[in-house]
Amino acid sequence: MVVLSEISEASSSPSSTFGHSSPAHVHSSSSDDHRYDVFLSFRGVDTRRSFTDHLHKALIDANIETFLDDEEIETGEDLKPELESAIKASRASIIVLSKNYATSTWCLDELVLILEKRMTSNHIVIPIFYHVEPTHVRKQQGSFGDAMAKHKQTMEAETNENKRSQLAQKMDRWIKALTEVANLKGNDVNGRLETEFIEEIVKDIYRRVHLPLRSAQPQPLLIGMDYSIDFITSWLKDGSSHMANILSISGMGGIGKTSLAKHVYELHCREFHKSSYMEDISRRCNGKYNGLLDIQKQLCSDISKASSIEVYRVSEYTSKIENVVARKRVFLVLDDIDSSDQLDALLGSKGFHPGSKIIVTTKDTCLTERCRLFKTNIKPKHTTYSLHGLHEIESRQLLCFHAFMYNHHKGDYEEVLDKLVKYCQGHPLALEVLGKSLYNQDVAYWEGFIEGLKKETSSCINNVLRMSFDSLPSKNDRDLFKHIACFFVGIDRDVAETILEACDIKTRPGITNLINRCLLSVGWNNEFKMHQLVQEMGRFIVREESLDKPWKRSLIWCHEESFKVLKRKKGKGNLLGLALDMRMLEKEKLGASFELKMDALSNMDGLMLLQLNYVQMNGSYENFPRELRGLCMHGFPLKSIPLDLPMENLVALDLSYRNIESFVGCDSNPQRLEKRQKLDVSCLKEKRLLGSLKILNLSFCKQLRSLGDFDQLPALKRLIVRNCTSLLEVSESIKQCVELFLIDLSYCNNLEKLPIIRGMLKKVKIVLLDGCNLGESKIENREMDSPEMCINRRTSSSTFVGAIPSDLKSFAMSLPRSLVTLSLANNNLSIESFPMDFSCLSMLKHLYLDSNPIVSMPNCVRTLPRIEKLSMENCTKLKLVEYPPHTLRELRLYSSHQGPHVKKIVYDPKMSPLVLLIHQGYSIPRLYELEGMIKIQAMLDVEEKVLRSLGWTNIGFLNDRSVGIKASESEIRMFYEFGIFSMEYEAEEMPSWFRHRSAGPSISFTILSSSPNNLRGLNFCSVHTFKNPFECVLYDNHFPPMPMIIIHNITKNHMWIYERYPERRLGEKWVMLSHWMFGMNEMEGGDHVTITVTPPYVEVTKECGVSLVYDDGEEEDALGYYKSWNHIIGGDLSPFQTTTGEYILNNLLFSMSAISLSPYHRKFVPDGPDYQVPKQPPWFRAFSQRNPGTIGSAREVTL
């Protein structure tokens, strides 16, 4: 049975419960609305010249803007307007409740107004019981009782009836306000030292009031830093650890580490016993003989009392520091650390007082944990945070600030701004330096300046970035950095490592060192990534080897310089790498067509890396350098490999986009053999010309028909033959490549013959067969022991589409047992094409079935015992995903086509958390269920017991569901997500059982404390209509695109912003009804709650109402299945959290890389950055582990 709550009618007192109220804003729209941080309410005769004066001074010294009324004598009966305005313009109020506080009618009026503001906003109230008992305040006893008795006498003595009535109402509000303030968590000064007590109050205010960024760093330095500031602030406030916490902020030079750390320090340093900010440590240590000793001296001075004893050794100062930090809770910022010795000297090894916080900024991400403090038995808790630069919008703001002195630009500068923002790639120092250089300059100057940057980076920026390069520990690491900067950015890491190792450069430790110093990163696709400014710095270091004579450098990456060196035959033995792509040169600079003379390479004895793309060559290939390890020749016109090309040392050969017809001498068709040029196979075998080759790329060779003689490639690891549309066969000799790791035959869509490689190739991990039209092929296994498998292409392919499940199984059985990744994307495979069993691929972890016409997840996927990633992106016919494997960690269902395609996903209750990428869009099917995320069903199909549990009774069209149902009513759907049930239906007014209503979009109330039943949930209802068309604008981003309901529990400081899918409007007026499941942790008696509905800009909310639903415990829980979902209120809402206790409930966030706060969110969430990027993708788990017994009891609705 469900009991609907009775919410008391409201009086005007903020402590009462009420149902009828004027609309209330949950938050102010902007932090700028607050002129003061704190309003001080106090009785002057008691504390003005003592406690309150000391408290006021401490607040001002802490840079907390505080209002204090300086008038001694009260004039008039009513509160002064300036006091009322000051309360409304303050973030918090401190109420000093002293002996004579209640004798002042002004004090009592201030108290009422303060508590009213607390009811309707996040106004913070801190009561201080200054030598009075909280009980005396609550029950109006002692001096408070005497004061109220005198006020009562004054009221009774009043002869004017109207005035007496007004005084009586005031007294009622005063009494309730005194009772309420005494019930709040307060601070009692009795038995305390007032100085320590005041210090605690100031720290409490600092923690609870979000101060605007006016006190620390200048605003330009903090553009784009909001999320980082919030993250570090949250880390500082986390008191869960019983040991010291260290935060390492890492990033390349100039990325903003110092500005961020300094700002956070100035915001929070007063919250600790002692604090110290040590700036620019590496420069101070390296620039002076006893620099480290000076830094230690400064640190000791900041955190301990001055000592007359002089210390002259680093080890002695370290002992002093260790003794201090063991006894006091300290906050230290150590800026720009570049060695573990510095940390050892400043932190010691004996540990810190619990609750201490240390921030280290460094260019080396792994440096902190190399210090002695982490080699002790009790290690501090360590958190890392990386800065990666600004987003494009923030970059433009910072650049414009320095170039124009404001955050936007003039219209004429759009194009040059785009170029400069792209060049800087979010680097704050570069944006600042270049912006200042361009201040007050015209567009023409900007264009010339940008052209100059292509030749030379600003020395100021280069010097900062170069510090990381100079700190590299070995010549090997510096050479590695230069090679990557010149040739390997954007190249697969494994490929690059293979080539660089062959060039005698040690990559394993070196790459780690580069990554740790923020000089290099690895992208999602395993490719090397490097910030453009860092890459230019690396190339500039190479250019410094010889500024005017490029042939004297070790590496030449500039195509124009390479062209000149080859044309003039200037290359010498010092040259290690050269790149030339003729397409990158301006034709007008070439003059006559260029033909490379082979003897131009004859003196380059040391050359190991060579790129000659689309270059016409003339002469003997005997002059090619014999030490080559990597050779790339795109667009080479010959049809076969020249016999005299020295290749015995090659480890990587890229002949993509060539006219080559055959790679080495192989082809089963003698007629074709006679028609084309080929290698002398006997010569090839004798010399083993390709015996070292590990990587072979023949992609986009449109004339290539066959691949064979793989016995000449014993070291081959990667075979890449993409988009070779004439390729017919791959020889069975591929089984001789026992080191083979990857085979990529994607979009070779005319293949007729592939070998069975199951038994021989035991190291193959990746097979990519995208776009090979396997669904249009008849795969036949000639014999189980046959050495090859054929794909016989039919002329009428449509006859065989989707009719060959057993053959695909044979195909799978031909693949290596070692296979980890298999891609069958874009192969026109229907669901019937797949066998029931894929267990032969027992090691498979990643399966890609993208862009295939499957309607459901193939059953064979469940037979893969180790599958972790399944991708079915852009499968436009996919409707059902049922029971994906327990081992799955990532499920990709995203579609680039408009609207959702998957209508139902069903999970096993034992599923593990996974990353779920799915696109739902705004247009959704009539019936729709993504289990654990959203369920949509026809209202007429919802069970009666569920409706009773929701408290949904006496709803017109549901009263008699057996007769008289209109077509429009049969289409009404119930949505369930986040623990919220909702529906919209055409009606003039809300159900009659909503007794507590408010005109407009908001309602506020207090939950009664007297009910004996458990709170089950809350029903909220609102009536909507369209605005007058003349009142509507085309678009207003202060309104959401979909209905938005905001429930704010002011008492518990929880807020849920629910963004509901919009539905087609059937009439001029409609009702939106929702039920929110809450538990004791979210709602309970005594909580102050505000509910606001924000419709799209073309709609208006006429009325809203609320009703609480209680459970008497007599009935079976019909909502058990719904409660078993994991991502509901009271469950795991971490993917939707913006700041502590605030959640944006929109399932699209599961597939988004960040939470974006729009202007319509800012009405309710004024704090925090606009763009919040989580440290890791949100994990999705359909069912909670809290109550597994209820799972699976309500799956009767099918689609």
Spell out the blueprint of helices and strands.
Blueprint: E1 2-4, E2 36-41, H1 44-47, H2 51-61, E3 66-67, H3 81-88, E4 90-97, H4 105-120, E5 124-129, H5 134-139, H6 142-157, H7 161-183, E6 187-188, H8 194-208, H9 226-237, E7 245-250, H10 257-268, E8 274-278, H11 281-286, H12 291-303, H13 314-327, E9 330-337, H14 340-347, E10 357-362, E11 381-386, H15 392-404, H16 414-424, H17 428-437, H18 443-453, H19 459-470, H20 475-488, H21 493-502, H22 508-516, E12 521-522, E13 528-529, H23 532-543, E14 555-556, H24 559-567, E15 577-581, H25 587-590, E16 595-597, E17 609-613, E18 616-618, E19 630-632, E20 652-654, E21 662-663, H26 670-675, H27 681-687, E22 695-697, E23 706-707, E24 718-720, E25 729-730, E26 742-744, E27 753-755, E28 766-768, E29 777-780, E30 788-793, H28 805-813, E31 821-823, E32 846-848, E33 869-871, E34 880-882, E35 890-892, E36 904-906, E37 915-917, E38 928-930, E39 934-938, H29 944-950, H30 967-970, E40 973-977, E41 980-986, E42 996-999, E43 1002-1006, E44 1014-1026, E45 1044-1049, E46 1054-1059, E47 1069-1077, E48 1088-1094, E49 1099-1111, H31 1120-1123, ...
Parallel strand pairs: 2-3, 2-4, 4-5, 5-6, 7-10, 7-11, 8-9, 9-10, 14-15, 15-17, 16-18, 17-19, 19-20, 20-22, 21-23, 22-24, 23-25, 24-26, 26-28, 28-31, 31-32, 32-33, 33-35, 34-36, 35-37, 36-38, 46-50
Antiparallel strand pairs: 1-49, 12-13, 27-30, 29-30, 38-39, 39-40, 40-41, 41-47, 42-49, 43-48, 44-47, 44-49, 45-46, 45-48, 51-52
